[in-house]
Automatic annotation (TrEMBL), chains A, B:
Organism: Sporolactobacillus spathodeae
Sequence similarity: Belongs to the peptidase M32 family.
Keyword Protein biosynthesis among record annotations: no
Keyword Ribonucleoprotein among record annotations: no
Function according to Swiss-Prot or TrEMBL: Broad specificity carboxypetidase that releases amino acids sequentially from the C-terminus, including neutral, aromatic, polar and basic residues.
Source taxonomy: Bacteria, Bacillati, Bacillota, Bacilli, Bacillales
Reactions it catalyzes: Release of a C-terminal amino acid with broad specificity, except for -Pro
Pfam families xrefs: Peptidase_M32 (PF02074)
PANTHER family in the record: CARBOXYPEPTIDASE 1 (PTHR34217:SF1), METAL-DEPENDENT CARBOXYPEPTIDASE (PTHR34217)
Domain of life according to the entry: Bacteria
Protein name, as recorded: Metal-dependent carboxypeptidase
Enzyme superclass (EC): hydrolase
Family annotation (InterPro entries): Peptidase_M32_Taq
């Protein structure tokens, strides 16, 4: 085979892997949205079969043969940018998987599934010791994997790289220390402010059917294409991509907490817009997905916070809200509403945290993960360290581990290194917004006039269309001309919360 | 590997094929129930990838190696009944596929998809000549395939065997000639009767939401398990099995033709009950599906006709119908209703035909298919022969080919040999009912008292649980002690229509 033929065969080979991935995504969407319960255990086996297939094809002798030819540095200039990046991604997956002995990889998979189930019990019983032995084994295995990959110092970087390629602890340390310096005093000032927003009215019941219609309306308003997606109901909202023409979102209709539903829907909508706008040229390649967890989160947070929690947005949509809610909020002004949905105070549970305090929750987890992999923190000491960090960052201490170290599924799932992406997403989002304010000086007017689609187009042009063709920091640099800079987020927070809480 | 190890490896190998089949079924269900349209073309490629995978695994060297060992006649007594039958089925698939040159098999697949699309145009234009060249090529290829399989005389039997294993033209000729002799005079007498039922009130609007609730209620009444299934809406109702714990049905809510919705739902429910009751021991084997199209149809028709169109059923459910329909039918008695939903008259379109005339539509198609493959009928002459047969069997002639030879998708889909299963299903169903009347002498009371579940249990015990472990005629013999006997259907028709039309 000459180079062109090898390239064509490689494309075909990879397309099949992507097709299998699409069926996995469909099977999982189906299990979460309404598959009958008696079929679930067999369906899980189906997902296992497909995942095995993806794994074995990604690490096969055939894949190696393609990579031997196409990853050869001397021929890179003969390849298109797309092929080069595809090969780089395929090779990364190949190397990561092939270096780990199969029995250890299997052991980790089994541990993941056991630990998730034990975690539920441990949370119920508020007993970290149940989970401890599993986490210990997982951390030990992860450390071994990192060694197999050939990393001996800064082990945690190898985990960060799984979710945020190219981002290191050095970068995150810099970002987080700036963020902390900016946010912690602001949180304190907000807490001390005598201008606390009234927010009790947010529990006013919002009939499910009306709430559903309002969510459908809002998704259309931000540019979500229902010919390339659908909205279903699940307990935990999520977005999943089958292909760029089929990007689905879910939400949960909470009649007594409608604002969580509304903002959760917009959040998932933000993820979905990213995936719906990926260039169709990338379909069938591993580049046809968001480039990192952090960039993905930047899109969902952009829409949730900079759109969904903005005053301009509700200036336009508050009357619609009242229409759908059958005038339930006619007693509150749009300003009352805006302040209520942005009320901020330190809290224990990350997923319920407000925009301002959220990054601090991530810092707690980041410090701990770093100490677990690059320091000498023992799994046994996690609860104590957790509580200490919570006091340090947020000034509160969880009364129980259930509300502390046991709250998140990420560690029992083996997803060490994932958390920082959430905070990076905030930083990226604010940096995009800053650039956008100069490209679209009428940014707030667009939102206030219901012309969000122009904002979506900016994101599509500068971020979405590239899928994984560009790496996260490359996207950021090309779109904003800068490395990650947390000052834009700090600036945004100061202005917004300064106004809401009338800080001096 | 010793025999036991080979058997275990074969089971594992086959399980994966079944897992792939489950994903194909899911992808197709999804495409028909609500997948966004912009994702469909990529999704079709996914289905193609999975189908290729199933095909190549079913005809692989590895499969051949298993079959060489396990299909060896000298070791059959060392295998369980399940393994023996699995091997027999795997071998049949293997032989059928391996004997056909790959390029011809591919050509046929392409023809199928082209012909289906041309068929839609031909139907719209009422122009058979558009479809003719495609059908000619398909028939020629099918004849070649039959030759490859090694059949030289009674070619049509090879096609029948695809849908109704073990049933030959000899059997069908016998059954259909008896049926014809019984039904044709009855159709004439019904037509001539002066006691025609009034049925105009069946177009009374039935609000969609209420109709949906009524369908959910009826499915529960016949024993459909919603923990192992779900009901969705599609233009054409269907049943699809992902696994026995996940058997889905769909229906279409026709506000101005609610009885079609109701009976269509019960029909699909009958298919679903079959699949929901297959023994869980057969999951992961090729035996975990209905044993033939005919036996499958016997279950759907049993419920549609012997339950859903019975007087006993409506004696129990007519007041419920009126409740759901907000008293729309309080002007009609249950007897009016029963007669209306059983009104019969010769008509042009098979899928809208009534219970009594339906088998005659099948005979038209059977005669034609037989002549195409074992006689010398040319594709070009299909329209003329169709009209002639319609006059012969039903006494009416379609004014257009759209209402004649072009009405069904089966031939453009390449499904020659499928039609007879529909009529065999009627015959089997009546034969099961006859046996049931002696096993459950209170058959009609059970229906009239809303205790259908006892009837469902009889079917489950005698038919459903076996999946494909028994062949169709074996199921029939074991359950009824007889070969296919059309007299029970004729008897049923005579009694029922004699009463409705007050024939002498």
């Amino acid at each position: 085979m000459d180079l062109q033929e090898t390239e064509a065969a490689y494309y075909q080979y990879v397309k099949k892997i992507m097709d299998f991935n699409e069926t996995i995504a469909l099977a999982e969407w189906d299990m979460r949205t309404g598959a009958p319960k008696k079929g679930i255990s067999q369906r899980s086996e189906v997902v296992g079969t497909l995942a095995d297939e993806v794994f074995s094809r990604s690490t096969s002798a055939e894949m190696k043969a393609y990579l031997d030819v196409l990853a050869d540095p001397s021929i890179q200039n003969q390849l298109s940018a797309v092929t080069r990046r595809m090969v780089e991604k395929s090779k990364k997956t190949y190397d990561q998987n092939i270096k780990i002995p199969q029995e250890e990889s299997k052991a980790f998979t089994i541990l993941q599934s056991e630990a998730q189930s034990v975690w539920e019990d441990a949370k119920k019983a508020d007993d970290f010791s149940l989970l401890e032995p599993y986490l210990e084994k997982m951390v030990a295995l992860k450390r071994k994997f990192i060694n197999y990959w050939g990393v001996t110092t800064h082990r945690y970087n190898a985990l960060l790289d799984l979710y945020e390629p190219g981002v290191t602890t050095e970068t995150i340390d810099r970002i987080f220390s700036q963020l902390r310096a900016g946010i912690v005093p602001l949180v304190q000032a907000v807490k001390d402010s005598s201008n606390q927003p009234e927010k009790d009215f947010l529990t006013t019941p919002f009939p499910k059917e009306q709430l559903q219609k309002f969510c459908l309306y809002l998704l259309r308003e931000i540019g979500y294409d229902f010919d390339a997606g659908r909205l279903d109901q699940t307990e935990h909202p999520f977005e999943t991509t089958l292909n760029p023409g089929d990007v689905r979102v879910t939400t949960n209709y909470l009649e007594n907490d409608f604002i969580s539903t509304v903002l959760g829907t917009i959040h998932e909508g933000g993820h979905a817009l990213y995936e719906q706008h990926i260039s169709r040229d990338l379909v069938g390649t591993p580049l046809c997905e968001g480039t990192s967890m952090g960039i993905h989160e930047s899109q969902s947070l952009f829409f949730e916070n900079f759109i969904g929690r903005s005053k301009a947005f509700w200036q336009h949509h508050y009357s619609d809200l009242n229409k759908y809610a059958e005038n339930a909020f006619r007693g509150q002004t749009v300003d009352d509403f805006y302040r209520a949905i942005n009320a901020s105070h330190p809290s224990l549970i990350r997923i319920f945290a407000d925009e301002l305090t959220y990054p601090l929750h991530i810092m707690v987890r980041y410090d701990i993960e770093k100490a677990l992999f690059d320091g000498d923190l023992a799994v046994h000491d996690l609860p104590a360290v957790w509580n200490e960090k919570m006091r340090e960052y947020l000034g509160i201490v969880p009364p129980t581990d259930r509300e502390g170290v046991l709250q998140d599924i990420h560690w029992p799932s083996g997803d060490f290194g994932y958390f920082p992406s959430y905070a990076l997403g905030y930083v990226y989002a604010a940096q995009f917004r800053h650039k956008m304010l100069s490209d679209l000086p009428n940014f707030n007017d667009l939102i206030a006039n219901g012309e969000i689609v122009q904002i979506t187009e900016w994101l599509s042009k500068n971020i979405h269309q590239f899928g994984s063709l560009k790496k996260p920091l490359e996207i950021l640099r090309d779109a904003t001309g800068e490395e990650p800079n947390p000052n834009y987020l700090i600036q945004y927070m100061k202005e917004k919360y300064g106004e809401i809480y009338r800080l001096k």
